[in-house]
Amino acid sequence: MNDLIIQQIANGIIIGFAYAMASVGLTMIFGVLRAINFAHGEYFMCGAFASWAVIHYFQLPYIISIPVSIIISAGIAVIISRIVMEPLVDAPFSTAVLATLGVYLILQNTTRLLFGGTYKFFSGGWLEMLTIMGVTIIEQRMVLIIITVAIFLFLEWMIRRTRIGKAMRAVAQNHEACIIVGINIELVTRFTFCLGVLLAALAGVLMSPIIVTIYPTMGEGMTFKAFAITVIGGMGNVRGTFLSAIFIGIVECFVAGFLGLQFREAVGFVALIIVLMWRPYGLFTLKGRF
Amino acid sequence: MKLSQIFRSKTGNRHMQFKMGIISSMLFIASLLLLPLLGNKYHLHIAILSMIYIYPALGLNLIFGYTGMLSLAQGAFFGVGAYTTALLAIHYGWPFWLTFVSSGVFCAVISLLLAIPALRLRSYSFVMCTLGLVVIGEAVSKNWVSLTRGDMGISGVPRPVLSLWGPGFVVSQVVHYYYFVLMFAILGVFLFYWVVSSPAGRCMRAIRDEETLAESQGVYVWAYKLNIFALSAIYAGLGGSIYVLYMTIVSPLIFQMYHTLLFLIIVFAGGAGTVGGVVLGAFLFVAIPETLRITPDLRMIIYGLLFIFLAFRMPNGLGPFLVRIGESFFSSQPKR
């Protein structure tokens, strides 16, 4: 029993790491644009499908499919950023809801049109077992942990220390002042959005060997989870997102392990509603945005 | 007076505006009454679906178009209404009008409970919270197997029987259903019009345009929001009730995002904050894709493109645009 609990916590933390990587883009784009992005999970799905297509159609190894799918997602991100995200600067919030819902419909149904709506078997990844301190972990999960930690350290450094990170924080605070001091809001938006999309796609590629089956509507569930995670973490707060993703991951694993797998999808939103009743501004937002 | 001025003017000729509205709605109803003479069963089926979707779309229009709160919970209450009707009709054999009313009442009760967390939030948090209600509704309908039979769904909902006493008349043919649903649709639209043109409707618009100002002028914002959240839930629940009376089957698929998005596009594209635009939108965005028999994937892609186009180019929806076209069509002769 004790082993089981430790195993569930370990699983939850690992899943939480993946959720953190998938949803950090959502919180950053909210910080910069004040817009919620309903299409965010679709980039997760795009990453997974691009990787699957590379493995399935070209018989290339998984390690090559990672950079290829990131490049494909980057292409999609730049196009969508130019057409949809940059005009959203200073637009009313319902415009953002409508436009990103449109992107969500287009991406999901284009994928379905291209590859069919059936479940696909993802045959890649490193699936050897490792045992560390009595906890059994698949190698793929170790890879996921290492990459996520590296990425979040990089994000912390980038946001605090680099020029573009400072520009992002400035845009999150005040658009007009940014224009006065000569910060290109469109450029910052494009950079933030593309970075978020790349991280979501990378999370999709790294998660696929763990969830094994991929399907065109997988992004929808991820979007909803990312919403719950970002709101609980405080919209626009990268550290809060990281913590709340791990929190959601652990709760999900406990619910799946002790109540039943089918309740997993609703965990995020139940937690969201409880947190919103108690603290409408999120759990970790007191120290400001980013 | 120009047609567009009649439709849009705030201080203009109210009497004229009212008369134009009466005339156009009469013409529309007359053409709907005559539709069974022209169309085949398939066309009637599409028209029935469009008229059913008018209900939840009007609910969304009430809460978003008139009060300014973007709620995605319409899909949830649509499903709750459908399940309520199906369960009451199957397990207790209640007549359709009783299940219809009780779906509305049940949705109102649930919405009042859910309003407590939801209405404390604003803009994006409110959107996400209401979206959460749809996800939770789906999870409940899938997992409460003893009540909802899970993914298998509930089938064999009895068809509505119209009777004062005696055996009565069973609504079973498509044509019968057409007039049955048409009656409900007309009733719903006129009740909606009555609500939004009352002083309460003016308060709603005040809340939408400037909430703080409305509150300072003595509009009790919280009570209005609560009532409107409940009323929009009632509209969605009644729509779900008619849906299940027509389809005679309900499954957790009713909670999928497709319905929520369909209501959104009907309201946004038809013209949020108008009655005629939303009614027209229900026919345009349900009937046209069905009639053209576009595959669902392609249809959703087209909807997506339409969403992006509307968001940036036509934030007021198609309603005002159509009025402008109608104006240039009717007023070929020079004015005054």
What does this structure look like?
The complex is a heterodimer of chains A (290) and B (336). With 290 residues, chain A is mainly alpha-helical. Chain A has a single domain, classed as Orthogonal Bundle (ABC transporter involved in vitamin B12 uptake, BtuC), CATH 1.10.3470. In chain A, 75% of the residues lie in helices and 4% in strands. Chain A is built from 11 helices and 4 strands. Chain A has helices at 2-33, 40-58, 62-85, 93-115, 139-161, 163-173, 175-181, 185-211, 218-233, 238-258, 264-278, and strands at 120-121, 129-132, 135-138, 213-214. In chain A, the strands form 2 sheets. Chain A has a two-stranded antiparallel ribbon with strand order 1-4. The model of chain A has no long low-confidence stretch (mean pLDDT 83). Chain B has 336 residues and is an all-alpha fold. Chain B has a domain at 42-150 and 162-256. Chain B is 75% helix and 2% strand. Chain B contains 15 helices and 4 strands. In chain B, the strands form 2 sheets. Chain B has a two-stranded antiparallel ribbon with strand order 1-4. Chain B has a two-stranded antiparallel sheet with strand order 2-3. In chain B, strand 2 and strand 3 (169-170) form a beta hairpin. In chain B, helix 5 (96-118) packs antiparallel against helix 11. The longest helix of chain B has 27 residues, at 221-247. Chain B is globular and about 55 Å long. The model of chain B has no long low-confidence stretch (mean pLDDT 80). Chain A binds chain B through residues 30, 36, 83-84, 87, 92-99, 101-106, 108-110, 112-113, 117, 220, 224, 227-228, 231, 235, 260, 262-263, 265-266, 268-270, 272-273, 276-277, 280, and chain B through 64, 70, 116-117, 120-121, 123-125, 127-129, 131-132, 135-136, 138-140, 142-143, 257, 261, 264, 268, 296-298, 300-301, 303-308, 310-312, 315.
